[in-house]
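Dear colleague,

As promised, here are the two records you asked about, laid out in our usual form so they can be pasted straight into your sheet.

NAME FIELD: protein one
SEQUENCE, THEN STRUCTURE:
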Amino acid sequence: MIKNLIHNKAMKYNKKPKTLLIITGLILCIYGKLSAQETAVPSELTEKEFDKRMEWFGKAKLGIFIHWGIYAVNGVSESWSFFNNYLPYDEYMKQTEGFTAENYNPGEWVKLIKESGAQYTVITTKHHDGVALWDTKAGNLSARNSTPAGRDLIKPFVEEVRKQGLKLGFYYSLLDWSHPDYPNKTRTEKRYENDTARWKRFVRFNFDQLKELNRTWKPDLYWFDGDWEQSAEAWEAKSIVQMLRQDNPGVILNSRIQGYGDYATPEIGAPVVRPQHKYWELCMTMNDSWGYQSTDRNYKSANQLLRTFVDCLSMGGNLLLDIGPKADGTIPDEQKSILESFGRWISKHQEAIYDTRAGISKVHFNGYTTLNEKGDVLYLYLPYKPIGGVELKGIKNKIQRVWVVGNGSMLSFKEYNKPYWSQVPGNVYIDIPENVLDEEITILAVLLDSPVQLYTGVGNVIESN
């Protein structure tokens, strides 16, 4: 993996440069951090065993990311605001005095997340600023010891996630710009260079915190971040993974642990082409910020975010949609409204979401598609009002019927441009009455006589008639 890449999240929250040379002959991926190890089944597992580990993740489709920390007090960029010298470190850390969590109700949080249709959630246990939200014994900087919240904020959240039946993910920053033994403090200030003893103390600190999280709660997933500042060898990434799976053998890891992850993690911008990794997830903000920022009113609409979700589905990926609670523990109304919109739409269209896989090429349908697991039901997603029906082409199968998902209405369709002498499939047009359209995205289900077969030729000419 390329080392010492310059990370500049402050520039519209682009997490880190994403371009990596995987191996000769593979594409250059600019949307996800993929290494040769990340695109392959882990060496200790067979492909079947790996797919078993990833089964729940592959079917989950939607997760909710939670960025919560002291940065919500003044509404500044989480950790990056002091690292990039936008404000002094001491001023940033004064926010600990206002982090009250006085209205924090994890039961309401998890209920809202579950009702959105999400199957898993990932919460920031510790961001790059080093403030742990759980009662860590490995250091003194925590919500319990350093803020008016005065308690472990992770424990009750975990209890509610387990109670309400969701999968649990922990975000954990491998780097810690507040720790006295971590070499970097800001982009321009270093504590030391080439001090082996101090670095070893920091590595031990990381292991101790991860052991606490892992042995206490055994999460289903770790969402690592911050790996770009050191090498896999320096982090002792392999040992971290071994330690986590010793007590928690089925745990899933994202790609940000220097080549030892299970799935790719593109960020903000949806991939234009499907990532090379079999499993992947797009993490996405609702506005332009991860944590709560009162001045950021640039919220995307529910329709725009649902379209991004459908885009991910069509390429066989998940969406990890972010919320940023306020310092008192309340979730902004705009974010609640978006989650409620997701909940309504997903509840109506479940059959075309959870048990689906990547769809067909846009050369056959000019839009988003997925397939059921068997491959004989093709789902068409329409984030628009069709004019003159919608067209399918190059489908070699016989179409049995077409219906509106969540509505049940059967739709009429007709095939054109299919003379008896040609083996080339015709153009199928599906009529869609306006009264069956969903207010956000309409889904059509196309039942085929067998798993989908596609024609990808250039057509032919008449030779006998």
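NAME FIELD: protein two
SEQUENCE, THEN STRUCTURE:
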Amino acid sequence: MSTYGLDGVLSWTQAHHVASTCARQLPDTYARLDEAAGSILAQPILTLSADPVVDSAAINGYAVCGEGPWRITDEATLRPHQAVRVRTGDPLPAHTDAVLSIAGSAAQHHGDGTVTVAGIDELTRLPDERARPEFGSGISREGEFAPSGALLVPAGRTVTPSILAIAAAAGHDGIEIVRPPVVGVIVLGTSLLSQGQSRGGRVRDALGNVVPAFVAACGGRGNPAVRAPDTADLLLSEIDDAAVDVIITTGSTAPGPDNHVRQVMRDLGAHWLIDGVAVTPGAQMLLAKLPDGRFLVGLPGDPQSALAGLVTLVAPLIAALRGAPPLRSYQSAVLFADTPAPEFAEDTRLAPIRLEMLDAAQVAHPLADAGPAGLSGWAQADAVGVVPPGAGFRGDVVQYIALTSR
């Protein structure tokens, strides 16, 4: 068993389901438009006023009153034989009977500085003082497009730039969203380097920037990673100080006296949800709920295993906290080649794949574990294939979790 020394080992499907269902949606909160992108809309966005607010010009032209010809004026209230030049969307002066279009009018300038406008006969296309627009034409009436309180965007939608645009156009300065989870990251280990190449028996930290970025891509708010030596006292202190909804640790998840995550969880009286998953890579991932309601996800220090843990546990946990609708199923593709074998026969294999449409079928090209820390395949992947035990051969149909928007 690839999870030797762990308690309550789950299959990948079970672990993914637990992470998807163990958390309740966080409370609603008001957010400014500039900080709401990517969150889930908690309340519908409604119009704040009628659209249009008042009777407005539906076309460019002249607001006219009575019969023509009309003398151009700038009065706020029209009298018979008067007109005001208007553009589409302009509020109309009082006593406007219709809006005469530019194309259907002819203006005449007089020596005294006044300007009159007349309609054009539709048959002769000549100015005709008797021609006038039909009463009410060219006018958008108050509330014609939407009354006050009309639905613009329903609750439950992810806030996109287009949604932000319509909210701003409707006059909103902020909207009600499901509060996105705040996630703290603790990178454990004294031998990790924060910059430069591996040297002197120390290796470069490949996860400190990755985990917050992954959290942000999932719709959470990832705090910059904190680096800490792997000691129980320091880990307890960091967990106690973290004012977050979720804590993610990297490293120190293997059973044994030199790794302290499990010891600290037991000292804190955490409720264990997942202690090991039958998966390659990432078997030693864990998930627990602290007595104060915060969640802790323990990711292995090996970069491939940590990425597997992000996909398996972190993504569904954040989705549940932020109120995203549960994903009932994943898309599938036909394997174009065999995937690497899992470490043990009962393991699910998470295999980075490149997707391609071939003869109207979605096919998956498994990518090799190569490059620094074996991450070349993950770096080039469109998705991660979820290969169940006993599968993974050319022609098998497997589900996959997308990694890019493609």
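A couple of things worth noting about protein two: The helical segments are 12-21, 161-169, 210-217, 232-241, 261-267, 303-321, 376-380. The chain has a mean pLDDT of 91.

Best,
R.
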